[in-house]
Known about the structure:
The structure holds two protein chains of two kinds.
Chain A: H1 3-7, E1 10-13, H2 17-28, E2 36-39, H3 42-49, E3 65-68, H4 77-86, E4 95-99, H5 104-112, E5 117-120, H6 125-142
Parallel strand pairs in A: 1-2, 1-3, 3-4, 4-5
Chain B: H1 8-63, H2 67-75, E1 83-90, E2 95-99, E3 116-120, E4 123-131, E5 137-146, H3 148-200, H4 214-290, H5 296-327, E6 333-336, H6 337-347, H7 350-353, E7 358-361, E8 366-369, H8 371-388, E9 396-404, E10 409-416, H9 448-458, E11 463-468, E12 472-480
Parallel strand pairs in B: 7-9
Antiparallel strand pairs in B: 1-2, 1-5, 3-4, 4-5, 6-8, 9-10, 10-12, 11-12
Helix pairs in contact in B: 1-2, 1-3, 3-4, 4-5, 5-9, 6-8, 8-9
Amino acid sequence: MSPKSNLRPILLAEDNPNDVELTLSALHSLNLANEIVVVHDGAEALDWLLRRGAYADRATSEPAAVVLDLKMPRVDGLEVLRVVRSTPNLRTLPVVILTSSREENDLVEGYQLGANGYVVKPVGFDDFISAVSHLGLFWALLNEPPPSHAKPV
Amino acid sequence: MPFTHLPIQRKLMAIILLTSGAVVLFTCAAFFTYELLTFRRSAVNQLSTLGQIIAANSTAALAFDNQEDAQEILSALRVEKHVVAAALYDRQGRLFSKYPANLDVAILPAAPRADGFGFERSHLVGFQPVVQRDSKRLGTLYLQSDLEAVYDRFRLYAGIVALVFAASVFVAFLISRTLQRQISRPVLALAETARAVAERSDYSVRAPKLSDDEFGLLTDAFNHMLAQLQQLNRELEERVKERTAQFEAANRQLEATNRELEAFSYSVSHDLRAPLRHVDGFAGLLSAHAGPALDEKGRRFLTTISASARQMGRLIDDLLEFSRVGRAPVRRGLVNMDKILAGVITDGRHREDHPNIVWDIGPLPDVHADANMIRQVMANLVGNAVKYSGKNPQPRITIRAVTDAGANEHAFSVADNGVGFDMKYAAKLFGVFQRLHGPAEFEGTGIGLANVRRIVARHGGRTWAEGRVGEGATFSFSLPITPTSTS
Lengths: 153, 487
């Protein structure tokens, strides 16, 4: 576990405030040192990632991972993924889809566009907590994110 | 070739020629026969006349015993070349004179016989009296004539008959050849039209009406029939087109409905789950946040809220699954049921979780079905058997297959000796969300058997169940050996 990963934030893209609250609550129970940045739709997510618009002066380093909801207004999750994967310095960014949908099309398309994981939000609270905890522990602590200034292949 | 199968034209010609030939022959034969029958009389008449004249001239010679005169008179017969012999006999029957003069007497009868004429050995012979004016018989005249004249005549007749026959047959041929068209043309036209209709299935052709007789009637009736056929054909095609259009419209409707359902279930799967998650989520947060401050009842209320939300989640999942089972295309292939069953038991970890279950598995045939869907069916039935045997200390699950080639089906059965059910509720078993036990006894939503029934029905099979309370239940389904139609 490199010390750098502890400082890198996790970007959470989720439009539903209730889901945001539940997810944050679950992540906080892990006592992660990482900052959790929340954006509420795909456009905001892209602005943050590409340092443009309202986030032109974003100081924080590249995120350790992006937790991405699919159904968001303005720009949806798959579109964000598409842009991320086609942007040279973001191409290797770990993206995990966290969504209510278990529809096969979304699964297929998500992986086709290069998602690193796909988690369906459980309905049950305990299961939800457990899933988010696992996510957080893996991506924030266990996984080695790609180096920040990796040259695009 | 047999007469019956000759073409019409030849038949008619043959009939006419045969008839006219027969008529001519018959007529000639009649005349011929008449002649034949009467020639005797005429020949006799002729000879008799001749004889009378000679006899009359011979009276003087006989009376005065003048052989020379008699000879001269008889020699007058030479003008009649057909008289080959003649003789005069005197009163005593002795030969007096003969003609020709050098005739061999052996040819002549030794003595005169009775008067009269007769036929002997192809000659006409006769005896006539030579009488004086006062009827005193002086002697007998014998005449013998050959029948060459008659034969000549008959030969002439035969020649004429032949000629007449040939001529009349020829004329009959010419006439009939022209006139038979009156009959054969309408028939051939009709036959030709019929053939055209049969070969090309073209009901728009019509037979030409060539005459106003029975053939005309036939032609009219035939054409009328064709017109009706044409009309019926058109109507049928119209109806088929209509029906096809109806089916196509219904099909499009179904496809539209299907697409709607897909969109619906997609939004359900996404949009309905989120609020449920929030209900359970915030109930959980509340429990963590204020749980200690609540009393027993309050904590129980929270638990109920959570449990209900989770139950609703399961119901939604099951409903979506049920809808998917009805919508997904059936992808048929050859399915090895032994492997499917083995996989189901392994995936369900039934042997590990319930080691005291005795499994009695018979050989299972391969079937033509959608492997995934059939796996679901088996998983459901096996899972149920395991679940409802939970309270039995010595559970036994029996799985069998029976093939009935006559009814074109394989029948599979999964039997357990668990809690069983009352047969009077058998009809409800396969209903959606229908259960015969409460959630406290056995968990489940009651969708499993509904899915089983739906999948099996889509394969063209049947589902049925038997059970006895406390003794166990057998759930069976059939699959067609050769696929019929699906939904």
